[in-house]
Amino acid sequence: MNGDGDGEEDGEGARRKRRRLTTPLSSSLLPQEFHPSSTPSPTITHQIPLRPTPPPLGFFQHHLDTANTPLQIQNLLTRWPATTTNPWSSPSYLLSKTHFGTRLVPIELGKSYTMEDWSQKIMPFREFLKTYILSPDADESSYPGYLAQHSLFSQIPSLRADILTPDYCYTTPPPAPPGVRAHPLEGPIVNAWFGPAGTVSPLHTDPYANILCQVLGRKYVRLYPPSESERLFPRGVEGGGVDMSNTSRVDMDAEGGGVEVEEWERFQGARYLEGVLRAGEGLFIPAGWWHYVRSLDTSFSVSFWWN
C-alpha cells in the first residue's frame, strides 16, 4: 500500500512540476534587466595584464610572436549591438530572439562535468530562463543550469548579428604547445555561455587561442601557463576510454582541492594570473593555458577559438 500511495504522490508531484515549468513567462512580470548578484569580487593578487583600450592589430600580433601571454582588454565590445541597441541584459529581448523562448537548448546540470552527478538536458529556452536564471528554486536547482559551449548562433542567426568577431581572431597565434592536439580551423569557432551566478568551468586547457568576450555580468578567471602542467595534475584517460587529460584533478572549489595533501601543496606553488572579467571586456587566453572560470553574476559570454 505504501508503494502504491508513493507512486500516486510522485505522479501528481511530477504533474505539478510540469505545470509550474510550462507556465508562460509574462512580459509584464519580467525584469527590465537581469539583476546583478550581491557576490563581491574576490581580492586579486596576480592581476592579468590590463589594456584600457583595444590594442592595434600590429601590437597584438607582436604580443603573440613574443610573449603569447593572457591579456584582459577593456572596452572591447563598445560596438556590439548586444551591449548597446539590442541588449542581452534584457530578458524580454532574449525571449523575442528565441521565438518567445520556444527554441530548444542543451543545458548542463551539476557543478561541473567532472562530477558524477553532472548531466545534460534539452529544454525550451524560456524554461531554462525561468527555472535557472529568473527564479531558481532550491528543489529544482540545487546545482545551477548552464547553457555552456553551445553553438547558439548557428541555431539563432539573429543573435549572431548582435556580436562582432574581434579582429584579433584573424591574427596568427603560435602553434599549440607540445602534446596539445589542435586541428586547423577555417574560421573562428563561436560558442555561447549563459548561466546564473555560481556556474563553474573547472580548471582545464583548450587547444586553440581564445578571446572570451563578456557581454553581461562578471566572471572570475584564473590562468596557469603550460609550464605549470605537472603541478596541476591532469586527469588522463578515464572510464570508458574518455581522454580527460585537458582537465585538472584539482577541484578549486573544494577544501584542499579534493586531492592528496602533498598534491595540494604542489598545486599551491604553481604560478598563475587572475582577474575579474566585466561586461564589455575581452580576455585573450593563449592555446594550452589552463583556466578556471566562475560566474559572479548572471553571465553571458561569447568565446572565439581560432588558430
TrEMBL record:
The biased composition feature labelled Low complexity covers 22-31
Q: Where is the composition biased (Acidic residues)?
A: 1-11
Polar residues bias spans: 35-46
What Pfam family is a match for this entry?
A: Cupin_8
Disordered: annotated span? 1-52
Residues in domain JmjC?
145-307
Q: Which PROSITE patterns match?
A: JMJC
Q: Which InterPro entries match?
A: Cupin_8 (IPR041667), JmjC_dom (IPR003347)
Q: Which SMART domains match?
A: JmjC
Protein's UniProt name:
Clavaminate synthase-like protein
Gene source species: Choiromyces venosus 120613-1
Q: What is the lineage of its organism?
A: Eukaryota, Fungi, Dikarya, Ascomycota, Pezizomycotina
